[in-house]
């Protein structure tokens, strides 16, 4: 069973809630024309991570649906099951409910790994793959570099404005766009007194990160025979380095049988906004 509810935003997006793989899963259906593009966000992010791509005109080229993965955004957060296999089952079940026989599967960071996993394990359901800033080997100091992003988990703030003020101090946010506000708004629960608490659970996210690293990517990626668009943003993230150096991204691209490789402006986070977003949309438009 599932239901739709329409929020009267100026962009006419729909919030979609479905029962999938035993969980309540939330997605944002932006509409649009062309093939269905299903997007999965990064490790601790949510469906609104792609609002910057929508602002850059992505729905001109595809019907875009962005999903909250289990334990993020408005989707249900079970105590366990944060593996690639279970998360992939969530996506396939979502597709079944929405009667989507096949999609272009795309993702940012963790969502890109999920896209590769789906393409390898459910090849008839995935026509093409879009992988934004992900590779088998990220920067060797990735855990330390993600410190500012992971540090927000489990914290309570007096108001959303207070939370946003902290977010804006992150070293990787050298630009700010209004589309970022909706992303961070979807990152928190708001209590009756106006205080906010981050939604992703640190234990769940640790499990998800550990499980994705344990997958045999060197063996799996050559099995992804669908066309793949890989996009890398080698701008400085933290610690005076990119989260995904171009050489590491190209190393992964070399394992894919049918790959198109693009470089865009920005870093691992800001690539989804501004000029980076416009360049990503242009690459997707020609790819799909």
Name of the CATH superfamily: Alpha/Beta hydrolase fold, catalytic domain
Number of domains: 1
User: How many strand elements?
Assistant: 12
Order of helices and strands: EEEEHEHEHEHHEHHEEHHEHEH
Helix and strand arrangement:
Elements: E1 2-6, E2 14-20, E3 23-31, E4 36-40, H1 51-55, E5 63-67, H2 84-97, E6 103-108, H3 110-121, E7 126-132, H4 142-145, H5 147-150, E8 156-157, H6 160-167, H7 178-185, E9 188-190, E10 196-198, H8 202-214, H9 217-220, E11 228-232, H10 246-253, E12 259-263, H11 274-287
Parallel strand pairs: 4-5, 4-6, 6-7, 7-11, 11-12
Antiparallel strand pairs: 1-2, 2-3, 3-5, 8-10, 9-10
InterPro entries: AB_hydrolase_1, AB_hydrolase_fold, AB_hydrolase_sf
Domain AB hydrolase-1: 35-266
Keywords: Hydrolase
How would you describe this protein?
33% of the residues lie in helices and 22% in strands. It is an alpha/beta fold. It has a single domain (2-145, 202-287), classed as Alpha/Beta hydrolase fold, catalytic domain (Rossmann fold, 3-Layer(aba) Sandwich). It is globular and about 50 Å long.
Features:
11 helices; 288 residues; single chain; three-stranded antiparallel sheet; Rossmann fold; disordered N terminus; alpha/beta; 12 strands; nine-stranded mixed sheet
């Amino acid at each position: 069973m599932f239901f739709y509810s329409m929020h009267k935003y100026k962009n006419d997006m729909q919030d979609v809630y479905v029962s999938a793989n035993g969980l309540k899963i939330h997605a944002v259906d932006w509409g649009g024309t062309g093939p269905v593009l299903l997007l999965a966000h990064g490790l601790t992010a949510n469906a609104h991570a792609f609002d910057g791509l929508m602002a850059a005109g992505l729905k001109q080229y595809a019907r875009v649906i962005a999903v909250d993965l289990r334990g993020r955004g408005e989707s249900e957060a079970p105590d366990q099951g944060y593996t690639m296999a279970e998360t992939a089952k969530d996506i396939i079940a979502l597709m079944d409910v929405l009667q989507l026989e096949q999609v272009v599967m795309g993702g940012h960071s963790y969502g890109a790994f999920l896209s590769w996993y789906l393409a390898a394990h459910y090849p008839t359901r995935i026509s093409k793959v879009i992988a934004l800033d992900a590779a088998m080997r990220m920067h060797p100091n990735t855990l330390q570099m993600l410190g500012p992003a992971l540090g927000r988990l489990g914290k309570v703030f007096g108001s959303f404005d207070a939370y946003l003020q902290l977010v804006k101090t992150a070293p990787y946010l050298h630009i700010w766009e209004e589309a970022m506000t909706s992303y961070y708004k979807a990152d928190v629960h708001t209590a009756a007194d106006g205080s906010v608490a981050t939604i992703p659970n640190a234990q769940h996210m640790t499990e998800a990160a550990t499980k994705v690293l344990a997958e045999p990517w060197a063996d799996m990626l050559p099995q992804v025979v669908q066309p793949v668009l890989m996009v890398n943003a080698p701008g400085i993230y933290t610690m005076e380095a990119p989260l995904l150096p171009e050489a590491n991204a190209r190393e992964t691209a070399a394992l894919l049988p049918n790959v198109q490789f693009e470089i865009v402006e920005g870093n691992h986070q800001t690539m989804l906004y501004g000029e980076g977003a416009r360049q990503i949309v242009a690459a997707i438009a020609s790819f799909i």
